[in-house]
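> call design_seq(struct)
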């Protein structure tokens, strides 16, 4: 089996590493690694998937993984990558969020038989004696070196409070504790955590005289510079109650062409030869790669059955044929009596929200971009009647991707 370090590097996971030669040699044998997750929400979003996938790759290559939910550190808030103080949240909310994250992590990682552990750093941080902590841990940290860290330097102008200043010490103490309790020798995380992770490795060296390593992932943005996992509607959540499997599928299938190869590498398990084959396509032929990305990513998070339903609904909408009942198309209600009389197509398009004005709806029809079910609307004054309804509703489309369902009420 290939060394997991080479796998992670080829797939684009590696941004910085403390000692590449040592990390590769270390990963030639089974090791224990960890990543910390911030329980400020009860669900991950798509932008959080990179570290989750990294842990999954580690496990698939025979390593034991620790998913550390920061129930203790979340009570302070990590200043890394932030220009303002994070809102502090109550212990009860943190604990409820941590439980939600545990359930989602279990979709990607096998926790049976001790192959992986979910751990909450609240177990050792909340009962911590502050005086003893300063004496035993704080003495190993140089304030000058801490202030030189990127996560602190960017906050000095806007203000860094004392609570946040302690965060590096607490995260380093996490690494030390996990080394002592579980033999953990590799911490991974986003590149904004580089200074904190190195501080932990250095603390292990100072206190235990042992070697521990650090590896960080790139901070992902899309080809347009937008934050990964965000859309115009907001975050794309892994929780199906917040983002349905169909909407999740749509997020991935609408990936910018420039991101397809990168996202296939990071967010699926497809062999890299297959990733490169799919990504080499251009124009409309690239849609197969996007469909594969959307299906594989949705399958990992929601299961194969939901991914299949989402794919079928998406294809039905795209082609104008097939069952679209599973697609959360915007729906409006219009009095049945109006369908009995007949509604001009341009009026219906405007009332369904597919055109801002009736004039815009007329132009859409004239340009051949308006459809009722799979049939193109040929005339602006074409009447939509009860005969056009299926199961009490009619599906309208503007262009290739904009849909609305009008239900007779």
């Amino acid at each position: 089996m290939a060394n997991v370090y080479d796998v992670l590097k080829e797939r684009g996971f590696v941004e910085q590493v403390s000692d590449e030669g040592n990390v590769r040699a270390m990963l030639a044998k089974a090791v224990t690694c960890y990543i910390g997750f911030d329980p400020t929400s009860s669900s991950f979003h798509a932008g959080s998937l990179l570290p989750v996938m990294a842990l999954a790759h580690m496990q698939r290559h025979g390593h034991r993984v620790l998913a550390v939910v920061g129930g203790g550190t979340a009570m302070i808030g990590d200043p890394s990558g932030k220009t303002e103080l994070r809102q502090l949240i109550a212990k009860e909310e943190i604990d409820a969020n941590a439980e939600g994250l545990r359930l989602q992590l279990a979709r990607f990682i096998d926790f049976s038989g001790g192959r992986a552990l979910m751990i909450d750093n609240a177990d050792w941080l909340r009962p911590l004696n502050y005086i003893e902590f300063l004496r035993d841990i704080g003495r190993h940290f140089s304030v000058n070196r801490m202030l030189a860290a990127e996560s602190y330097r960017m906050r000095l102008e806007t203000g860094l409070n004392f609570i946040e200043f302690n965060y590096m010490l607490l995260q380093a103490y996490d690494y030390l504790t996990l080394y002592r309790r579980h033999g953990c020798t590799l911490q991974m995380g986003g590149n904004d955590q580089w200074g904190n992770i190195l501080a932990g490795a250095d603390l292990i060296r100072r206190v235990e005289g042992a070697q521990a390593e650090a590896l960080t992932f790139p901070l992902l943005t899309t080809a347009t510079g937008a934050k990964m996992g965000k859309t115009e509607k907001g975050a794309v959540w892994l929780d199906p109650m917040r983002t349905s499997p169909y909407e999740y599928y749509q997020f991935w299938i609408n990936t910018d062409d420039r991101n397809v190869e990168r996202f296939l590498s990071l967010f699926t398990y497809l062999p890299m030869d297959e990733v490169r084959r799919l990504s080499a396509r251009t124009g409309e032929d690239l849609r197969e790669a996007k469909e594969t990305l959307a299906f594989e990513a949705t399958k990992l998070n929601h299961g194969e059955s939901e991914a299949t339903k989402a794919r079928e609904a998406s294809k039905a909408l795209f082609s104008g044929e097939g069952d679209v009942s599973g697609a959360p198309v915007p729906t409006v209600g219009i009095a049945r009596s109006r369908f009995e009389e007949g509604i001009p197509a341009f009026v219906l398009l405007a009332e369904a929200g597919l055109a801002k004005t009736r004039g815009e709806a007329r132009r859409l029809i004239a340009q051949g971009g308006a459809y009722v079910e799979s049939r193109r609307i040929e005339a602006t004054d074409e009447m939509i009647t009860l005969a056009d309804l299926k199961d009490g509703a009619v599906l309208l489309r503007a262009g290739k991707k904009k849909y609305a369902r009008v239900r007779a009420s």
